[in-house]
């Protein structure tokens, strides 16, 4: 039953993660991607990448607070979709926008700090995606966990990338950055311990409430 439940959850994640891409393709075919479609693709794929990265980071606290083991099983899938959207974002920049003109890309990278930060984030996501298999986990042993802690750095750098590329309204970038910082704070061992105790209390309360409801 549990397997059935988690595989349904996985199917749900596949569908939810593919919606932004389907929507993007639909809008592209309908000519709905503003007057500057390349920029619109860049912005939408960037937002999807960061959203998925945040969801990947949220799995552990969701497990800690609500005891939902299935959340942990979704991390790899969400992480791979994060990398998928990051690759589209990167390819749109390098291939579509700059037509693989590396001299021009180099000039842009040197001038725009947000591009450098985005590039470093992309490299981290690439390393995490390549080593996400069970075989790499066995091969790297303890270093696998150390390497995969780089997701915290990736999240912070992605938030910085978002803030630095923003020209006017900073509300959304600050909301994303706030969520990233909160999710990282929840991983500090002492805070995680308090949260875990709170989560257990919540579960007990819910259990008690359930009994009251049954009566
Ligand atoms: C080589 C890597 C990357 C490059 C070259 C790059 C480049 C860009 C560019 C050119 C923009 C649009 C700026 C504008 O037109 O105003 C942008 C926006 C954005 N990027 Fe990246 N980026 C990279 C990696 C990433 C990664 C890894 C993430 C997330 C994890 C990310 C998230 C975003 C977000 C959230 C936006 C803004 C979206 C919005 O304003 O709606 N980028 N990026």
Runs in which pLDDT lies below 50 for 5 or more consecutive residues are 209-215
**How many domains, in number, for the residues?**
1
Q: Which small compounds were modeled alongside the protein?
A: protoporphyrin IX containing FE
Would you report the number of β strands?
A: 0
Shape: globular
What is the mean pLDDT?
91
User: Helicity range of the residues?
Assistant: over 70%
How far the N terminus sits from the C terminus, by CA atoms, comes to 27 Å
- Count of separate DSSP helical elements: 11
- In sequence order, what are the helices and strands, one letter per element? HHHHHHHHHHH
Largest sheet: number of strands, sense, barrel closure: none
What is the radius of gyration computed over CA atoms, rounded to a whole number of angstroms? 20 Å
Write the layout of secondary structure elements.
Blueprint: H1 2-29, H2 37-66, H3 69-73, H4 75-97, H5 102-111, H6 113-130, H7 134-140, H8 142-148, H9 150-165, H10 171-185, H11 189-214
Helix pairs in contact: 1-2, 1-4, 2-4, 2-9, 2-10, 2-11, 4-6, 5-6, 6-9, 7-8, 9-10
Bound molecules: protoporphyrin IX containing FE.
The site of protoporphyrin IX containing FE (HEM) has 22 residues, from helix 2, helix 4, helix 6 and helix 9.
């Amino acid at each position: 039953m549990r397997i059935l439940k988690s595989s349904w959850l996985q199917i749900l994640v596949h569908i939810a993660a593919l919606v932004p891409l389907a929507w993007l393709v639909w809008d592209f075919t309908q000519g709905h991607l503003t007057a500057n479609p390349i920029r619109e693709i860049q912005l939408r794929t960037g937002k999807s990448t960061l959203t998925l990265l945040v969801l990947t980071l949220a799995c552990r606290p969701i497990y800690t607070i609500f005891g939902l083991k299935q959340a942990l099983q979704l991390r790899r899938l969400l992480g791979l979709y994060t990398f998928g959207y990051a690759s589209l974002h990167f390819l749109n920049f390098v291939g579509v926008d700059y037509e693989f003109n590396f001299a021009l890309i180099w000039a842009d990278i040197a001038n725009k700090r947000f591009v450098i930060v985005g590039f470093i984030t992309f490299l981290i996501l690439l390393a995490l995606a390549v080593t996400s298999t069970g075989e790499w986990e066995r091969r790297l042993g303890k270093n696998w966990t150390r390497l995969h802690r780089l997701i915290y750095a990736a999240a912070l750098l992605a938030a910085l990338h978002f803030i630095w590329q923003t020209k006017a309204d900073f509300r959304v970038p600050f909301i994303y950055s706030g969520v990233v910082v909160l999710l990282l704070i929840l991983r500090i061992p002492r805070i995680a311990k308090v949260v875990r105790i709170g989560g257990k209390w919540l579960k007990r309360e819910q259990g008690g409430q359930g009994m009251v409801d049954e009566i």
